Amino acid sequence: MSESRIETDVVIVGAGPVGLFAVFELGMLGLRAQLVDSLAGVGGQCQALYPEKPIYDIPGYPRILAGELIERLAEQAAPFKPGYHLEQRVETVQPARHGRWRVRTSAGTEIDCGAVIVAAGVGAFGPNRPPLEGLRDYEGQGPGTGVHYLVARREDFRDKRLVIAGGGDSALDWTLSLSDLARRIYVVHRRDKFRAAPESVREMRRLAEDPGSPVELVVPYQLHGLDGSDGRLTGVDVATLDGDVRRLEADALLPFFGLSMNLGPIAEWGLDLERGSVKADPVTCETSTAGIYAIGDIASYPGKLKLILSGFSEAALAAHAIYARLNPDTPLHWEHSTTKGVPGFAE
Which is higher by pLDDT, 264 or 196? Predict the structure, then answer.
């Protein structure tokens, strides 16, 4: 295991969209940042789970793909030269001299910093797998075939017969997104009521009633079994609660039953927790431990909205609170970005 020691102003745990924007907000205040993330690339869930999924509630972008948003945020952070420590977990956060912190990662990297921002989203995550015999035999079988828990490239599913299982936003979002590519889409749900956004439900039902659409609503059914051989999926069996079984010819199964999430080592840092989240002050985003801040989906406070744009606001609040902590004798001479400018960008 290689070891290195780094000194910086702030360590950001999590390189998702909110963590990336925190780099920008810190940089505009003259603060340096190092990011640590267990994934192989930046972007968190946006990049790892749904890079081609459109997002509609980012100010200034009526519609932007998740992967494109990450590219823009990384570009926005780049002038401030953050350090990235990918495929590493923060294992320990220990107090150091003069109110600073010593952060150590799973790769042996040691970072001395003045503050820590936890922007770890939902923490460590993985798919909730349906309890089907032989399920893992069909995982990882290549683009557009077998069992997939995310859609990295829409084009992989062109002309494929798909079974999409689930009743939430992910299931319906991908049904709508793939309806112009797939040969057939069976939407399987245990009841005829869905938890997704009402507009998505209406559009899915409209497609299901259109004779020219590839979408068929299969309710009330649940996943029952998989058919195929040598890792090649050929069909999915579904069943009613009464035991009536129907076989759906399929090239791929996309089960969207949410994510299994846990905080990992963060749960051992002595922070006040609340239902899998980290309690934070809504004004400063500081946690129960002075010098450690929480932003994004992992942060919890009364009235919290789990939206990316809320995380962006929290990044700004945390950055200003950290500046005051690290520079108690130097009042902030704050300027708008239109006045101050950004390093590396032409005026």
Answer: 196
